[in-house]
Amino acid sequence: MPKQTTGSSRTRSLRTAWGLGRLAARVVPAALRRGPPRTVTVAERLRAVPTRNLPLRAPVTIHWNEHHVPFIEAEHDADLAVGLGVVHAHLRLAQIELMRRAAYGRLAELLGPVAVDLDRTLRTLDLTRAVRPIVATMPEATFDWLTGFARGINAVIAGPGELPEELALLGHRPEPWTVEDLMALGRLAATDFTWRVWIPLLRLRARTDWPDLWERMMRDNAMPVPAFAGGGGGGVDALLSLLGAFGRQGSNAFAVAAERSATGSALIASDPHLGIMLPNTWLMAGLSGPGLNAVGLMIPGVPAVALGRNRRIAWGGTSLHAQSSELFDVTDLPEGEIVERRETIRVRWGKPVTVTVRDTPYGPILTDAPLLPDAGGRRLALHWVGHLPSDEVTALLGVNRAAGWAEFRDALDGFAVPAQNMVYADADGRVGQCMAARLPWRPPHPPDDLFVPRDARRHWERFATAATLPAVLSPPRGFVASANNRPEAAGTVPVGFFFSPDDRVRRLRALLGRPDPVGIAELQAAQRDVLVPSAPELRDRLLALARDAGLDAASPERRRFCDGLRPWDGRYDAESAGALGFELLLYHFALGLRGRAGLEVYTAGWEPWAFLRDDLDRTPPDRLAAALGPALDRAAAEAGRHGTWGAVHRLRLAHVLGSVPVIGRRYRFADVPSSGGNETVMKTAHGFAGGVHRVRMGANARHISDLGDPDANRFVLLGGQDGWLGSTTFLDQFDLWRRGEYVQIPLRAETARTLFRYKTVLTP
C-alpha cells in the first residue's frame, strides 16, 4: 500500500511555504513593536516569581545564586515538588510548553500550517501511547510528587507576570499542566536514538548496492551510528532536529574510585551530548527536603535529577545505544489486523486537517508519516519499548534517594527508556557501572536487513532489565568510563548493533589509567580533551599512500601540505592547522573516491572513518591514488585559505527565533571558533568538514563531584540557566564554559544559605 499523506508533495511544499510566511507575518510585526528583549537582572527576574497563596502546607525557601541556580528548602516533600515546579516554569516555561506540544503532536495549534506534517509524523510515532496506563499504575508517592510539580508550574502560568518572549510573540498563554502532560513530555525526552539511524538508512536502502552496504555496516556486529546524519531537507531536518534536541544521543560519564583518587574519595564526572541550542536542554538545581536531598542536572519539565548526587551516592549516564525499537515489515499483514483512527490537527490560521493514523499489533505504521523516507513500497511498523508502560520518574526518584549500590540498581530495574549506561560512585569510595534498559530477548546475531519479518515479534515476549543486564562494581583498574561504546561485558541478550567508535572511551581510559592519582583538575581537563587517538593512524595511511604513489612531491603545494600534516598529533584545537588539513583531506578524498552520492554512505555512520578504512583496504591502489592526488591539491588550497580548524569549525549559539527574517539577528548570540570534533571527548559533532560549518551536536553541560565533600559539586551549562530572553543569566555561563570553569552547587542547605545571595519565600 502506498504511503498515506496529507496531500501531494507539491501541496505539502506550498502549505509549508505559506505557513512559514504566515508565521513570520505574525511574529515579525509583534517583535518589531516590542523591540529587542529588555535586559533583566536576576533580582528583577525573581520579582516575577509568584510567592503567595500557593498550594503548600508550609513556607518553602528558594535560595538563588548569581547564575540563577536555585536551591530549594522545604519542610515537606510535597511542598518541595511544588517549589520545583515553580522553578522549572519560572526558568523554562516557553521551552516546556513547546516540548509538551511536540509530545502530543500539537505544534500546528501554535505555529500554524508549517507544523502540520511534523504533527502528523509525531502522531504516527504515538509517543504518548503508554501515558495513561503509566499514570494509572504508578505509586501514590510518585503521583503526589508529579501533582505537586504540576501545581507549581500552574502557579506560574496563573500568575500576573509577563509571558516569555516566544509565547508573547505568538500571543499564547499555556493551558494548565496535568500529571499526564508531564509523563508525555518525559516520553518525548525518551525518544529512541535508533530512529535517527533509520531515517538516513531508509534512504540508502533504495540503492542497488544496499545488500553489500548493509553487510559492511553489520560487519563485526556493529555499525558506528549517526551523530550528524544529513537530513532530507525541510520537514525531515525539522524532525531530526527535534529528535536530536531532546532524545539522548551521546554523552561521556566516568568515575574514579578512592584508591585512584587524589582526594582520597570517589570522583564522578559527566558531560551529556545533545543538540546545541538555546535555551540549554538542561537546568541545574539543588533540593533539600525530609526525604530528598540532591543536586544535579534536570531535563526541563522532568521533576527528578537525571545526573548528579545525594549524600551517599552520585550518578551519571550515557546513551546505551540499545536497540529499543524494531521495524517490522507488515506489508502483507491482513487488512483486518490494521486499526485506523481519525485525528484532527487543529491549525492556527488555517482549517483543521483530519488525518488517518493506522496501528497494528506490531506498532503504528511508520511509513505513513509524511516526513519519513519511503521504504520502497514496503509497509513498516514501529515497535518501541516506550510504547509499553514504564515509570522512569519513579525510577529516577529512587536513584535520587538511594543510599548505596543495591538501592541504585533496584531503582533502575524499573527504568526502560531511553536506555542508559549508568555510572556510579559512592561515599565509601566505590565506583560501578550498570545498564538501565528494558530490552527484548533477541538472538545474538544482527538482523538480515534494516527491518525484520513479523515472526521476530516472539523476541518481544520477554525482556532483560537492569537486574539481568551486565554490571560491575569496584573494577580492578579503579575507574569506569562510558562513551556510547560497545559494552565490554557480554550479556545473554544483545544490547544492540549500533555503537559509537572507541576513540572517546580509549582516550578516557588512557587519561584515567595513568600512574599518578586522578584529581579534580584531571577530570576537568578530561572533559575538555580534544585528542583523537585514531586520527594520526588514519593520517599516516593516507600520507603513506601518497608517498608510495609519488603524489606528495608532485608540486610544492602538495609537499608543503604533507610536510605540515605529518607532525600533527591528533588534537583538534581551534588553533590547529593539522586538524584542518586532515579533515579537508578526508572530505576531498572521500568525495573523489565515492562521488556526491557516495558521501551518503559515509555520513550514514557516526563518523565516516570506518568506511574510509574499509575502502583503503578493499579498493585497488590505482583508484585510491586517482582520488588522493586531486584531494591533496584541493585540501592544500583550502587549508591555506582558512588557516586553522577553528576558522571552519564554528560554535554558533542562537535561539530558534534567530532564523526568522528581519528580526533574527537579535536572537543570535555567538559565532566563535570551536575546538573538538566528532569523536573527541569534548564532543563538537559536525558532518564532513568540506568548509565552514557549525557544531550541530555535542557536549552541552558538565558535572563533577567529589564524594568526600557534600558541597564539592561543579556544574556548567553551554549557555545559561534562565530561558528568558533578555535575562542576564540567559548566556552568562558561556564564558565559564569556554574557560573550563564551573558553578558550585552545594548539597548542604546551610552552605546554600551562605553562598546563594538571593532568596524567595513561597507561602501557602
Provide keyphrases for this structure:
single chain; 764 residues; alpha+beta; ten-stranded mixed β-sheet; six-stranded antiparallel β-sheet; 24 helices; globular; disordered N terminus
Structure classification:
alpha+beta
Shape: globular
Number of strands: 29
β-strand amount:
15-25%
Mean pLDDT: 92
Bin the helical content: 25-40%
Report Rg. Answer: 26 Å
Largest sheet: 10 strands, mixed
How would you sum up this structure in a few lines?
The chain is α+β, with helices and mostly antiparallel strands and 764 residues long. It is built from 24 helices and 29 strands.
Explain this structure.
The protein has a domain at 535-569 and 577-643. The chain has a ten-stranded mixed β-sheet with strand order 19-16-15-9-8-7-6-2-1-29, with helices on both faces. A six-stranded antiparallel β-sheet has the order 20-3-4-26-27-28. With 764 residues, it is α+β, with helices and mostly antiparallel strands. The model is unreliable at 1-6 and 220-234 (pLDDT under 50). It contains 24 helices and 29 strands.
